[in-house]
Amino acid sequence: MFERKRWILFLLLIVLLLMILAVPVGGRKTRPIATPGDQTFSGKVESMNEHTCEICKWVEVSATIRTGAELLEARLGPKTFLEKRHFYPSVGDTIEVTGLRFTERGKEVV
Asked: Both ends of the chain: CA-CA distance in Å?
C-alpha cells in the first residue's frame, strides 16, 4: 500500500514538473512568416470595400491601393478581425501590404 502511494506521488511530481517546464518564460515571441512568393506592396488607398465571402459568409474588408501606375485590391481580412485590432484604414491613407499577388476574375489581388 505504501509503495503504491509513493508511485502515485512520484508520477504527480513528474507531471507537475513537466507542466512547469512547458510554460514559456517572458511570453511567446512571434515573428511574421514569409513564404517564397510573398511580395510587399505599398500605396495610397483609393477606396475601401466590404463584401460577403462566398464560402464562409463573413464580411471581408479590402482596399484598392494605387501602387505607382496600377491599382491592386488588397484583401485585408474579416471585418471583425480588423475591428478587434482597431485597424481602420481610410481613403487617402498610405499602407503597406505583404502577400501573394494573383489575378482573380480579371482583377489584380493581393
From this structure: 67
